[in-house]
Structures are given as C-alpha cells and as structure tokens.
Amino acid sequence: MGAYIVRRLLLIIPTMIGIMALSFLVVQFAPGGPVEQILADLSGQGNSATERISGGGDFQNQPAGGADASSSYRGAQGLDPDFIKKLEKQFGFDKPPTERFFLMMWDFMRFDFGESFFRDISVIDLIKEKLPVSISLGIWILLLSYIISVPLGIKKAVTDGSRFDIWTSGVIIIAYAIPGFLFGILLIVLFAGGSFFDVFPLRGLVSENFSDLPWWKKILDYFWHLTLPLLALSLAAFATTTLLTKNSFIDEIRKQYVTTARAKGLTENQVLYGHVFRNAMLIVIAGFPAAFISSFFSGSLLIETIFNLDGLGLLGYKSVINRDYPVVFATLFIFSLMGLVVGLVSDLIYTWIDPRIDFERRDV
Question: Region annotation Disordered: residue ranges (predicted)?
C-alpha cells in the first residue's frame, strides 16, 4: 500500500500541472481581461474597476496620447502608450504567457497565491473571509444527505416493491427533478416574507446582533438562517445518495453469499449489517469525494445569490466576471488539489472497509 500511496501522490503533480495549464490556456483567449476592464471603466463602459484596484486613483484623468496602433486592447485608442504599459506591468502582463504560467505555478507550489487584482487583500484572506458560508452549507448538506439517505436507501432495498418503496421513490424522483434554485425561490415566497409567511430571514449567515446573544440563542440563530438554503441545496444530493444506496444494497442482497448466510440461520439484521452492509457501502463511499468537494463549491452559486450568502461560489463567479485571475486560479488550484487528495483518502477507506481490495496489484 505504501508504494501505491507514493505513486498516487506523485501523480498529483502532473495532474495539477495539466489542469492549471489547460485553464491558463483558455484564459489567454478569453476577451475582456483586467486591462480591458480598466480601459472600459475609463471610457465609462465598465464597472468601476478603477475604484477597486490598488492605486486606482492614479488611473483617473489620464493624459491622452497618440492612438497606439500596436495595442491589442479595445478602448486603448487615444490613451498614452506608457499608461497602457503601466497597466500591463501592474497586472503582470508585461511578461510572455509561458513565463507568467511558470511563475504562477512556482508561487502556487509554495502556497503563495498573491493578492486580488481589484481588492487590496491577499487571495488567502479573501478565501478565508468567504469560507464560513461555504463550510456551513457544505458540512450540513453532506451530513444530512448521508444521515437521512443511507438509512432510507437501506429501508427501500429491504422493502423493494412495497408501497413504501413506491411512494418514496416518487417523492425522491420529483425532488431530484426540481432545480435547487427554483425550490429556493418557492421557499422564499412561502416562508421568507415573499407572499405568505415571514418566518425565516433572507440575508446573511447570522443576525446583526449575533455577538450579543447567549450561546444557545447563537445556535438557534445560526440554524434559523441556514434552514431555507439547506433545504434548497439538499434535494439533489438527498435523491442521488438514497437511490445509490438502495440499488447497491439490492445488488448485494441478491448474491449467493446472502442466501448462504440465511441458510446458516442468521437473522435478517445479522445478514444485512454483518455481511451486506460492508460490501454495499463501497459504491456509496466511492461517491463521497465528489460529494465532499461539490458540497463546498459546486452548485451553490445560485443559492448563495438568492439567499444573500457571500460564499465561495459567489466569490468564484464574481472573480471570473471581473477577470480577477489570482482569485480564479487560486480557487481552482486549491479545490483541484483537495479533490485529488480526497480521492486518495477514499481509496484508503476502501481498503479499510474491505481488506480484500489491494490497489498494489492494480495499475494506478
């Protein structure tokens, strides 16, 4: 197992380089980079980027110069070429793309992610600022989906074809078909002062007076704010995990070793939890890394927007729109690395649950 772990860890290096290189290449062809953002703002067509950039005041009322025919930037006509070069140097675009990529990777390998282009704050501090929302949503969605879905999936497998199985399957399929953001809007209309009841808050993770509340009220206030976003986000994860667990258990229950165990006089619980459970849960565990990563980042953008939660999903979206490349590439690097490491951890959990699995004898 030691050799397998080493091989997987070494494989992370070229995988990360490939992910970052492909993303960096795509960005090179994407129009509207940070320099264009500043130029558009100066021409009155942007989104006030110069107010957000460090030293942005120096870019106001720039002297006009002869139109730089060699400039590849839209909106650069009539501006002093030295001013354009100053912008390029500030954003690091005075270097060729290859050099920029290797410098970025060298910094990332040392976990130096630099500073945001448009906010006077380091990328790490910016991510830390948004983490509480994403952690709150991610952890609770993951726990709810497994705590509810696994027992429900087992119950559906044991009672396959019964009335309970049929009507719960109908509910699950309908829940899976409803987009999370649409269900979130429905919850707002019903319970957040939209048209009917005003029961739950619609902004933030905690109330403004959170620090003044006693500890037990802080807990209540925290979950009071999380209730609607969690309900909106948990539909798809709940349905997927439930059906995956059910199908996995049905497949194992029909195998010969279960018939043999029953013939030996073992009770249904002994067969189910002593023999079937360990084998059936392997496929559920296989989906854990993807569920773990996606619960923190993927699919939460619309929910964060609807419920006014400033998390990593919204941060990533705004960074792409504003072409804040340090934030874009840093979040991509961090979550890709997390995904690869968690995938390795998942394989190790495989061997812990079922010692018959030996990755040493297989190709990586």
Answer: 51-73
**Token pair belonging to 155:** 């119950």
CATH code of the domain in which 272 resides: 1.10.3720.10
Angle between helices 277-286 and 123-158 (to 10 degrees): 150
Collapse the DSSP code of 79 into the 3-class scheme (helix H, G, I; strand E, B; otherwise coil) and give the result: strand
Question: What is the pLDDT at residue 68?
Answer: 44
Domain membership flag for residue 108 = yes
What pTM was estimated for this model as a whole?
A: 0.72
Count of domains for the chain: 2
* Alpha-carbon distance values, 274 to 262, 280, 282 (Å): 12, 11, 14
Q: Give the mean pLDDT of the chain.
A: 79
Contact between residue 124 and residue 326 where contact means Cβ atoms under 8 Å apart = no
Of 72, 101, 118, the position where a domain reaches its end is 118
**What's the rounded Cα separation, in Å, for the pair 176 and 168?**
12
Q: Domain range for residue 206?
A: 124-321
DSSP alpha helix (H) spans, 110-195: 123-158, 163-177, 180-191
Residue of 22, 27, 24, 54 whose CA lies nearest to 38: 54
Claim to verify: residue 146 and residue 295 sit in the same structural domain: yes
